[in-house]
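Summary for the steering committee. The consortium agreed at its last meeting that each partner would contribute one worked example illustrating the joint modelling workflow. Our contribution is presented below. We chose a case with several input lines so that the handling of multiple components could be demonstrated. No manual editing was applied between input and output; the record is shown as generated.
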Amino acid sequence: MCADKSQAVNLAQDRRKRVILDAARTLFIEKGFEQTSLDMIIARTGGSRRNIYDLFGNKEGLFEAVMKDQLGRILSGTHVPKSAEDGVSIQSQLEAIGTEFLMGLLQPTVLRTLRQFIVAAGERPDLGQQAYAAGPAVLYERLETYFSALVAEGKLDLPDVEVASRALTEMIKGGLELKAMMTGDYEVSTKQIRRQVSKAVLLFLHGALPR
Amino acid sequence: MCADKSQAVNLAQDRRKRVILDAARTLFIEKGFEQTSLDMIIARTGGSRRNIYDLFGNKEGLFEAVMKDQLGRILSGTHVPKSAEDGVSIQSQLEAIGTEFLMGLLQPTVLRTLRQFIVAAGERPDLGQQAYAAGPAVLYERLETYFSALVAEGKLDLPDVEVASRALTEMIKGGLELKAMMTGDYEVSTKQIRRQVSKAVLLFLHGALPR
DNA sequence: CTTTCGTGGTATTTGCCAGTACCGTCTTGC
DNA sequence: GCAAGACGGTACTGGCAAATACCACGAAAG
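What follows is the complete predicted structure of the assembly.
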């Protein structure tokens, strides 16, 4: 009877939600929760405050919705193979994984989002935990299973796969993440990224001791 | 003539400054700039708002003073030798440096301070840049000169000393820093720290490839 | 045509807090 | 012991923004 109508309404609401989320995302990611007022968001979406309160409850609800939405967007990148591909050197594979990962991470939007998660984690621990579990933790795990496969094949020698996966991830980042978040310098050239990744992978594979 | 007096006054002011800084530090580090009101600080120091405005100008001035003060405190730790000590294996030396560094870094106070620097960097880029230059950057440099010495002696084989110093630092941290800042879990056991450091150093020295 | 619901726009309420002003008190140097 | 400046306490002001209430309009249903 009213199925058509309620569906139509839901569709309309979904569109409205998207518009608000998109506008709010830009502001929240750029300026943060405190520095963004609802009026700024409304100024971009048009419409009225009632939209926000009807759809998201309050400002905090909107913020969480935005951040969880961002989580989904960002994590869709970064592939890590389950096992070694034949015919490709491990070095090349690691470089490929690392470059893809680092290019994804060092986008200004991603870094800003990460920053906002850290800021938000102070007031809203759940959100930070969720973000960590869905972000870095997942990457570590994928890399672990990949490494386990390589170790089983005798292609790598890693006494502790967990430590190794974290180590490689971090040495690929090379502190660029922290630097960006502290200095606000979000621009890194792709050339720099490739250089960084290839050197980190070489060091990871061969170690620092002379042969 | 009034040398005594002015000095006495200065001493008194210095004491007052310290009291305010100490009280403000706890609150700023714990709750952050926005969530800390001057009334909270005054409630701990006793005294009146005039102290703060006379001594620090305004709330922001107080915050910056606190953060710079924290910088000084934290950085007084962490020694890195200029060159290799004879009779001690490189592995032991790196483990010693790494453990000291990581134990220093993973104190709740230090992590919270770092978090606040990141938060503050959004509004006050200068402060973040200063903190980065005085913190991580210094550590990297020290490690670089140390590595350069080891390479010159033929004890290490590092094509890029800068990348290597960043890599070791980051793999020693192993993402624990980021995890703490995102999840709010600031407690890491010293046992875990030693384990983490020793495995990271081994991997750094020998690499992942089988011999 | 009218009622009703969803919605845009705006005014109001409420609370918070930085910054300032004012007054009373206490210390300090003469 | 007495001026003068320093300091504690508190009230006041101004501004901002979240949350709510209220009004106006347009579209769909009866």
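Chain A touches chain B through 56 residues (CB under 8 Å). Chain A has a mean pLDDT of 91.
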